[in-house]
Amino acid sequence: MTQGRILVADDDSAIRTVLNQALSRSGYDVRLTSNAGTLWRWINEGDGDLVITDVVMPDENAFDLLPRIKRIRPDLPIVVMSAQNTFMTAIRASEKGAYEYLPKPFDLKELISIVGRALSEPRREQRVGDEEEGGENIPLVGRSPAMQDIYRVLARLMHTDLTVLISGESGTGKELVARALHDYGKRRNGPFVAINMAAIPRDLIESELFGHEKGSFTGAQTRSVGRFEQAESGTLFLDEIGDMPMDAQTRLLRVLQQGEYTTVGGRTPIKTDVRIVAATNKDLRQLIDQGLFREDLFFRLNVVPIRLPPLRERTEDIGDLVRHFFLQASREGLPAKQIDAAALEALRRYRWPGNIRELENLIRRLAALCPDEVINKEHIEAELERPFAEPLPEPAQESESLTVAVERHLAKYFSQFGDELPPAGLYQRILREIEQPLITAALAATRGNQIRAADLLGLNRNTLRKKIRDLEIQVYRGMR
Hints:
Blueprint: E1 5-9, H1 13-25, E2 29-33, H2 36-44, E3 50-54, H3 62-72, E4 78-82, H4 87-95, E5 100-103, H5 108-120, H6 145-157, E6 164-167, H7 174-183, E7 192-196, H8 205-210, H9 227-230, E8 235-239, H10 246-258, E9 260-261, E10 270-271, E11 275-280, H11 284-289, H12 295-301, E12 304-307, H13 318-331, E13 338-339, H14 341-349, H15 355-369, E14 374-375, H16 377-384, H17 402-415, H18 426-445, H19 450-457, H20 461-470
Parallel strand pairs: 1-2, 1-3, 3-4, 4-5, 6-11, 6-12, 7-8, 8-11, 13-14
Antiparallel strand pairs: 9-10
Helix pairs in contact: 2-3, 4-6, 13-15, 14-16, 18-19, 19-20
C-alpha cells in the first residue's frame, strides 16, 4: 500500500531522479514530468494527492499555474521549489496558495517531513492572492540559509495576526522585518506605526502609547492621540521593547489580554484592533531575572520569535547586499559603482559590529566619495582601517574596587524605578548575577577543569557542579 501519489515537476532530470528515489523509499507513488503542461493535465484529470513543483519551467512559471490549480482543486497541497531563494519568492509562493516553499538546495529529510505533514493534515482551502511581486522594491536581501529560514517563517505569518517578537543586534534590520510583515500581510491597507522605547523619555511613554486627555498632567493643554489609536486596523511596531518602564509594561499587558486601553487621565476603555510586532536588541530573559521586564508580558509578546542573525553570521549575503545598496545609491543620483572580487572578500573578513546598517553607510560613502568606478580592495581597507572614535573614559573606573563598581551598578538599577521599589527577590537576583560570571571566569582560568576551579573558588566539587547546572553554564575542556 502506498501512502499517496506525489506529482513532481522539474526540468532538471537529476532533481527528478533524487526526488523519485527519496519519495519512493518513503512509500509514495511518484509521477515525474519536466514541464508544467503535463503537470496541469494530470491535476485536471484528478490525479495526485500532493504536488512538488519547481517555479521556473520551460513552458510556464509555476506562479502562473498555481491559481488555476487552486480554482479546480483548492485542497491539493503544493510544495514549491526555487533556486532564486529571495524573500519575494517565499512571499509569492504563499500568496499563490503554496503549502510550503523550499529553497534549493534543500534537505531531503525536511522535504519528506513536509510531505508527510501536508498529507496528514485536514484538507482546507488556502487563500490565493492576486498580488504581484513587489518589483525592485525588495525589503529584505540575502540568500543564506539563515535568511531562507526567516523568509519561510515570514511567508507563513503573512495571513495571520499573531504577535511577533524580533530579536537581534542593532543594525540587523528588525524594523525592515516588521515592515515586511505589515506590507505583505493582511493588514497592509492599514497604517504602520513605529515607536522606539529607547528614544522617548520614560515619563512620556504611556502618553505616547495610549494618548492623554486635556489637563491629565502639567502641560497637557489638549487631548492627544496615542500610537495605539494611530495604528488602528494596522500594525504597531514597538522597537527596543526592553527599554519600556515597568508601569507601561503593565498597561501594555492589559491591552494584550483584554484588547482595550484607557488614555492617560481617561476613564472610558477604548477597544483596539492592532497587530503587535515588538523588537529588542537585549536579552529579555536576562532582564526578567533582573526584575526589569515582566515575564507574563514576555510570553504574550513571544508568540512567534524571530532571531535576526548578525552580518558576521551571514557573510555569504554581503555580495547581494553590496549590489543592492549600490543600486539604491545610483537611483538616488549617486555615481554607479561596481566592486571587484578581492574587495568583496575583504568585506567578508570584516566583523561588522554595526551590522547591515554599517555596511549600507560604507557603500553610500564609497558611492559618493570614491572617484573610481570599480571599488577595489585598497578602497575597502582604507575605509575599514579608519580608527573609531575612542569613548571618553568614565571617571574613577580604571582602579575602582568591586565594591565601588557594585554600588554604582545598584544605584543606577534603583534609579530606573523612580519612586517605586524593584520587585521582591532582589538579594537572590544580584547574587545570581555576580555568581555566574565569577564561576565562568574561574572555569576559563582553569581551562574547564572543575576540580581546579572548585579549589580556586573554595567550593566543594559537588557544590560547584550543582551551581554550573543551576546557572546553565556551558563547560568544555580547554575553555578560555
